Amino acid sequence: MTGRFFQYLNDIERFFCVVRTSGFVLSPRDCERVRGWYLKGVPMQVVLAGLVLGLRSFKFHAARGQRPPHQLSFYSHFIGASVRRFRSSPAVIPPSAGTGASSASAAGSGSAGDSVGATGSAVLPAPDPSAVQWVRQLSTELELAREREERPEATEALDRAAARLRELAEQVAGGLSPDALSYDLQVLDEATLAFYHTRLDEPRRQALEREAAARLSRETGLSSKARAGRMKAILAELLRADLHLMELAP
């Protein structure tokens, strides 16, 4: 496998970690699934679109606070549906993505994987109304949150988030798909909380970390890896509440 495959794998894994707010690595079986998509010339964005569909379905049916499954097998049905939609009516993929008819036809020769771009984003020919509406709503809510804040560390974090949101609004106007937007908003959400965490003064940061540790201590039966993931998720909840930040990703 080439470096492009490992970038493809890492980007899918990173997206999965972000949306589940948990640090972990894909299992060998899951890596084989990803390898299969790569060799068949499936664009990474199509896989991410399937993951988003699966996560939305899970959140709709799951109990509040229940975390999504970490096995890719749970999402295989949704990813398969995303691939079928792409095959029947492929979105316009930028040349830099290295996908499309040429890579799909090359799949049979075993060379398609090398032509799959790791960061190609599916782009629609016109702005998607749902994406436009979501960005507008977030912009309004961020403005309101900014007006309520006077703390420098909070205003700086919110200003950075608003600036990135303006960039995403321009991309949405250019046809950025809802699924690509969802991924970018997940990354922005996590980055905003992480930045705010670094800007807190030491007493406040330590207080939030102690509260997160206290909450975690009430959860038993977790492995060390699961505890690390839960600590991250709990701290994110506390930072979000302290910043009065709405969840940016749909």
Number of domains: 2
Output mean pLDDT: 76
Shape: globular
In N-to-C order, the SSE pattern is HHHHHHHHHH
The rounded distance between the terminal residues' Cα atoms is: 34 Å
Number of helices: 10
Strand content: under 5%
Q: Helix/strand-derived class?
A: mainly alpha
- What helical percentage do the residues reach? 55-70%
Low-pLDDT parts are: 91-125
Number of strands: 0
Sheet of most strands: none
Radius of gyration, CA atoms, in whole angstroms: 19 Å
Summarize the structure.
This protein has two domains: 113 residues, no CATH class; 115 residues, no CATH class. With 250 residues, it is mainly alpha-helical. Helices cover 67% and strands 0% of the residues.
Account of the protein in words:
- The chain has helices at residues 3-20, 28-39, 44-61, 76-88, 101-106, 129-148, 152-173, 178-199, 202-217, 224-243.
- Helix 1 (3-20) crosses helix 2 (28-39), helix 7 runs antiparallel to helix 8 and helix 9 packs across helix 10.
- The chain has 250 residues and is an all-alpha fold.
- The protein has 2 domains: 3-115, no CATH class; 129-243, no CATH class.
- Helix content is 67%, strand content 0%.
List keywords for this structure.
single chain, 250 residues, mainly alpha, 2 domains, 10 helices
